[in-house]
What does this fold into?
Amino acid sequence: MSRYYYFAATLPTLQFGGSFPMPSAEFLRRGRIHLRPSDCGILEKAKLRSDPELPPPTGSALLDRYYAWERALRNEFVAARAHRLGRSGERWIRPAEKDDDAVRDSRAILHAVADSATPLDVEIALEAARWALIERLRGRTVFDFESIVAYRLQLLILEHLGALTAERGETNFLPIYAVLLEAARTSEQSGDSP
It folds into this structure.
């Protein structure tokens, strides 16, 4: 297992809900300097969501375990949504093994956002669960490659949360709302009911 004492020691501390201290591009640039090329390649491919098809091993045990949890978590959400709507969710289930952590975490997320389920609340709860899982998977290690992978994933979480601003939400919402208003006006004028 690779150890990266200097690189790990130079990385700023990350805290959930805090600002991200550097963009991913800068982190990866630094990684190219300090990491073996094969390890850097793994970091460059790391993302928060796994692909729809079952991915091959990544070369990182932490990343493989994270992807397994993430896929199982999404399947739990599909099952909960399908149950709530009285439909079958089989079409949306992705290949994944049963994961007790994902089951527990999905229930915690759904319970946490049940009363105030705005899209932002759901995103924050999901990212908090991801963060907690990454912390559990990393354990107490600091200087090994798996810790660098954990850092990369947590940096991606902070970037994602930083992109969820009121201004951006309003920018995305207003065109959709305008289309809905126009559709409502058109149906009122024609006498049709939606």
Q: What stands out?
A: The chain has two domains: 5-163, 166-194. The CA atoms of residues 183 and 189 lie 10 Å apart. The mean pLDDT is 82. The first helix runs from residue 5 to 10.
